[in-house]
Design brief:
Elements lengths: L3 E6 L5 H11 L2 E6 L2 E6 L1 H10 L7 E8 L3 H9 L12 E10 L6 H20 L10 E9 L2 E7 L21 H10 L8 E3 L6 H10 L21 H14 L8 E5 L2 H14 L5 E5 L13 E4 L7 H4 L2 H13 L5 E6 L4 H5 L5 E7 L2 E8 L13
Parallel strand pairs: 5-6, 8-9, 8-11, 9-10, 11-12
Antiparallel strand pairs: 1-3, 1-4, 2-3, 4-7, 6-7, 12-14, 13-14
Helix pairs in contact: 2-7, 3-4, 5-6
């Protein structure tokens, strides 16, 4: 099969997580860059990546890369790409997003307009027509310019990969599914160990943890844009990838995953979302205040995204709220705690300095991922509890 190259964007600061995921799928990493990983694989790799990757935002088929510091260069280099080898005659194509970092060309709208014209001119010439009908399948392009280096990717995903399809409740969620999964995979937590989220909101952390524990592929139940294509990729490869993912689901395993929230509407939403994700029986959701957080067993994990005061009036309550979290954590002997928040006084309010602090960008918002590492559990019969 022909080797292709794919671009997988992710949250800034979590590239190492996505790199490990792609490696576990068996594909060769070609480049690790800020906010994205590039890898090589055949056409089936596209389907497997879309179905299985938990921390990627989408999967782009790399169409071209070149240098351009003027709009004339951008046009000529874009036109030089053999688009007719990738796009059928009736393809609907456009540049859906253009970003520019430290490049001479910085206007997204101008970049989009010029590249669209270059692609249309190339396609018209190659197919011998005056204009392109564009009444077939959609091939949206995403373009990034960094220091005058232009990279073009064709979006194979469509709706972002964080849309797993299980969030059926209208409760607002401050953290995306892809970010939650990546943060969980950044910790030493694994299936069979205790996980509690005392600010569970819509249930994203517990649900993603349960899906990881049961090895449920996040994209197994949804559709992808490339399934509508005819040519370099087709729907059969996605059918095969889903069948492979279904066969890999673990039927039985130990689970102690819990989520608490003070809002009864949030708890109802969590249960509905968990059922939609197929993990309803694996998670215990309960209405409970953070100060009531306790557990009889050792070596558990708190992984949570507490409120961080989006409104000025809410920020007045944050010291007390984070203080309650800190006191509850003190009483959990040997536990580890991981907290993502935009509240920059979190450590002081919790009452102890984190063993590690990582900056993570949640969209355009800078957040902090505080790690409070507990001791490792003792080995017991070759296995850890």
């Amino acid at each position: 099969m022909k080797e292709l190259e794919y671009i997988t964007p992710c949250h800034f600061g979590l590239e190492s997580v996505l790199k490990r995921e792609i490696g576990r799928l068996g594909y060769e990493i070609s480049s690790v860059e800020d906010g994205r990983i590039l890898f090589k694989g055949d056409s089936l790799a596209c389907a497997r990546a879309n179905v299985n990757l938990r921390s990627a935002e989408r999967v782009l088929l790399k169409a071209g890369e070149f240098n351009a510091s003027t709009y004339d260069e951008l046009y000529e280099q874009t036109r030089a790409i053999p688009w007719e080898d990738m796009l059928p005659k009736d393809a609907k194509f456009w540049v859906t997003k253009a970003s520019s970092v430290k490049s001479t060309l910085y206007s997204p709208s101008d970049i989009q307009r010029i590249m669209k014209k270059a692609m249309a001119d190339r396609m018209s010439s190659a197919y011998g027509v005056k204009w392109m009908p564009e009444n077939g399948a959609s091939y949206p392009m995403r373009v990034s310019l960094k220091k005058d280096r232009v990279t073009i990717g064709i979006d194979t995903t469509g709706t972002s990969l964080h849309k797993r399809g299980y969030r059926v409740s209208p409760v607002i969620a401050p953290i995306s599914e892809t970010l939650a999964a990546a943060l969980i995979m950044l910790t030493p937590w694994r299936a069979g160990r205790i996980l509690v989220d005392p600010f569970c909101g819509s249930g994203t952390f517990p649900i993603e943890a349960a899906m990881i524990a049961q090895n449920i592929a996040p994209g197994m139940k949804r559709k992808f844009l490339a399934e509508t294509w005819d040519g370099i990729l087709d729907g059969k490869e996605f059918t095969d990838a889903r069948a492979e993912a279904r066969a890999a689901v673990k039927k039985e395993f130990d689970s102690d995953i819990q989520g608490y929230d003070i809002d009864p509407k949030a708890i109802r939403a969590c249960r509905e979302n968990a059922e939609a994700a197929g993990v309803g029986g694996l998670i215990h959701f309960q209405r409970r205040e953070v100060k009531e957080l306790h557990h009889p067993k050792k070596y558990g994990f708190i992984i949570t995204n507490p409120p961080y005061g989006e409104r000025i009036e809410d920020r007045e309550n944050l010291p007390a709220l984070y203080g309650e979290l800190g006191k509850a954590y003190e009483n959990l002997d040997s536990w580890s705690m991981y907290v993502i928040t935009a509240y920059d006084e979190a450590e002081a309010a919790i009452g102890r300095k984190a063993s590690k602090n990582r900056k993570i960008y949640n969209g355009m918002m800078k957040t902090y991922f505080y790690e409070y590492a507990g001791p490792k559990p003792p080995k017991s019969g070759g296995k850890r509890p």
